[in-house]
């Protein structure tokens, strides 16, 4: 029965009051025979269809760093559009982070249409879950720094591409031709800007191409949030890179006690010396950030801090 069409329905994440009304409706429906108007309990389920997310105005966008363990997945949405940047890993056991985390997260956010998916490069921790996402939204447009390493069709991502959705500008600033022979340095680097605020997603680039990326991003805006390259590996985040971009917040996507020891203690120290705050998905969980054209970025939520259930161990 679980495989029947319609056996599983996705709803946007509801508010607390919507859940409370649905529970009341369920109790009403289960009342003994003879209780009048039991069918009206069905109407108390209707608020579940209304997403709890605050609508975005033109020029605003939300960025979500999903908690996918040792991997990477971001979702950026404007008022009417959404893009996915990386989709986590797929493991030999068959466990697929794209199916288990990214797709449900999109449904929970009330995203009904994904306009584009950007896969930074072909490493499994960035691309493994992409096939599941593409299958869930078959009309999705996909591009990557290494499209030949994906298991489904995608186009080559190249610097110079740009588009605007609802007053928010998206642009690809790397890679350029001729393409590097180093996998990580072929990463598709995406910058999303609204007014004086910008989100930069560089994937796993190394120090070798960081000067090229900073030159393409210059001049850096007053408010910049940076996905720390390569999960905080010591191969990236040079002193000059941090100084040139001078982010006010760095986002690290890393698994708890991962075997790669990401982020590197030296890299964390570099950001600290530059006065840059860091949020690591291993401690913060998912992170939601709101960007507005006339204000600095605001961290709206950290999953493990703001949704810490009482039964979880401190």
What does this entry look like structurally?
With 314 residues, the chain is an alpha/beta fold. The chain has two domains: 16-49, no CATH class; 61-306, Ribonuclease Z/Hydroxyacylglutathione hydrolase-like (Metallo-beta-lactamase, Chain A), CATH 3.60.15. The chain is built from nine helices and 15 strands. The protein has helices at residues 16-29, 97-108, 124-127, 130-136, 210-217, 239-245, 265-273, 281-284, 303-306, and strands at residues 61-65, 73-77, 82-87, 116-119, 141-144, 155-156, 162-165, 168-174, 189-194, 197-201, 223-227, 249-252, 277-280, 287-292, 295-302. The strands form two sheets. The chain has an eight-stranded mixed β-sheet. A seven-stranded mixed β-sheet has the order 7-8-9-10-11-12-13. Helix 7 (265-273) links the parallel strand 12 (249-252) and strand 13 (277-280). Helix 2 (97-108) crosses helix 4. The mean pLDDT is 92.
């Amino acid at each position: 029965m679980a495989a029947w069409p319609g056996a599983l329905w996705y709803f946007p994440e509801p508010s607390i009051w919507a859940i409370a009304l649905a529970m009341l409706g369920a109790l009403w429906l289960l009342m003994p025979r003879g209780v009048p108007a039991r069918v009206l309990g069905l109407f108390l389920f209707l608020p579940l269809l209304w997403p709890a997310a605050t609508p975005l105005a033109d020029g605003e966008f939300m960025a979500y760093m999903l908690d996918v363990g040792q991997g990477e997945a971001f979702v950026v949405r404007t008022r009417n559009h959404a893009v996915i940047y990386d989709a986590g890993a797929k493991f030999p056991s068959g466990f697929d982070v794209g199916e288990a985390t990214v797709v449900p997260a999109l449904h929970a956010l009330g995203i009904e249409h994904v306009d584009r998916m950007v896969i930074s490069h072909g490493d499994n921790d960035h691309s493994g879950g992409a096939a599941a996402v593409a299958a869930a939204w078959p009309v999705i447009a996909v591009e990557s720094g290494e499209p030949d390493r994906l298991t489904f069709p995608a186009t080559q991502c190249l610097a110079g591409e740009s588009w605007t959705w609802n007053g928010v500008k998206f642009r690809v600033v790397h890679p350029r031709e001729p393409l590097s022979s180093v996998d990580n340095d072929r990463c598709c680097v995406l910058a999303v800007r609204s007014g004086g605020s910008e989100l930069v997603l560089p994937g796993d680039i190394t120090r070798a191409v960081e000067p090229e990326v900073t030159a393409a991003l210059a001049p850096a805006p007053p408010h910049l949030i940076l996905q720390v390259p390569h999960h905080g590996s010591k191969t990236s985040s040079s002193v000059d890179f941090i100084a040139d971009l001078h982010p006010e917040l760095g986002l690290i996507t890393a698994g708890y006690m991962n075997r790669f020891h990401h982020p590197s203690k030296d890299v964390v120290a570099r950001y600290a010396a530059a006065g840059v705050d860091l949020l690591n998905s291993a401690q913060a969980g998912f992170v939601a950030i709101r960007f507005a054209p006339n204000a600095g970025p605001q961290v709206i939520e950290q999953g493990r801090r703001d949704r810490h259930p009482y039964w979880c161990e401190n």
